[in-house]
Protein: UDP-N-acetylglucosamine 1-carboxyvinyltransferase
Amino acid sequence: MEKLVIKGGVPLKGTIRISGAKNAALPILMASILLEDPTVFTNVPNLKDIRTTIKLLEILGCPATFTDGVVRTRPCEPKPEAPYDLVKTMRASVLCLGPLLARLGYAKVAYPGGCAIGARPVNLHLAALEQMGVTFDLDSGYIIGKVDKLRGAHIVFDKITVGGTENLLMAAALAEGETVLENSAREPEVVDLANFLIACGAKIEGHGTNVIRIQGVQRLHGCEYPIMPDRIEAGTFMVAAAITRGDLLLENCPVEALDAVISKLREMGVHVSREEGGLRVRHTGDLRSVDITTQPYPGFPTDMQAQFMALMCVAEGAGMVEETIFENRFMHVLELVRMGADVRLVGRTARIKGGRALTGAPVMASDLRASASLVLAGLAASGETHVQRIYHLDRGYERIEEKLNPVGARIERMQETEE
Structure:
């Protein structure tokens, strides 16, 4: 098992290029099940979850190749079963459910469990698909869905669901008639999926709002499509500039998708400006703590709260982070405390007293974004930080040390030794 060893205390200065967004690429790759022509996807990040998705597509009878950020798919006659061995490793595998039902009228997908940050049930997906005519059974840990032909429906989600919106977008693209999705997710990654489907011939309106209308079509053709840049990777590197008192230019940065993050950074005293070539983020003075409440887009993203908590630990004053999306997303708190942070948990709220000098320590990552927060804390800390279980980190960041070391970080990837 690998770990990162970080020697902190160095301001980061230079340019970093932002990779394609994993959370956009996963549903878009799943959507290739719907297509009857070859398709080329560019700006695809080289991540474990991407490789898992390609493996799943191959098992489903839809072969794909991945080379130098480009995925090429071929038209296929899909098979209906997504096995447990793959679904258990990547929750987003459930996004094959809608496309399989649209193409085959039948799908057998292993039921995804919860994860370290909390349960994310798929009941909203199933209830919505039932309104389109699907009947479901749960047998031996598998969701089995059957339908003669998907029919358009007026669906109101009980709760905003990104995955549910994505599954229904893909299913409705080939359904009979019109489907209306109310209380739908507005995340940029959902918009990217809709834009891809439109490029393939789908008829979709309202994506990016809470009401999406889809007119079903007979078939979807192939295209060449670039995956949007990763707003969470960009946000993480923005915090890296601030927490190290550095100055970074982020190329290929999805600025419009980062309004909430940029607003909080400016409130904390960080200088953020659009410049030729990208977004510049630099530390210009004392950092001030803030209060943050995570919300569905366009609110402050839950995927950035751990990184901001690390930043608030070194900012002046007291701040608060309220997590409203996932019930168990504070597992990084105890690790930050090991590094000298003053953080107290009260239910789903973390209270942070800033102005503390962080010191290096051995810490353990519990999930993807917690991993990022520990790397950021290590960059700001004195001494040496060992971040263990970085397989979480590698699910969402392309070898993060290879992007941070050229701008001044001192990070080494090492094998953990057996005690």
User: Anything to note?
Assistant: Residues 2-18+229-415 form a domain with the UDP-n-acetylglucosamine1-carboxyvinyl-transferase; Chain fold (CATH 3.65.10.10). The chain has a mean pLDDT of 94.
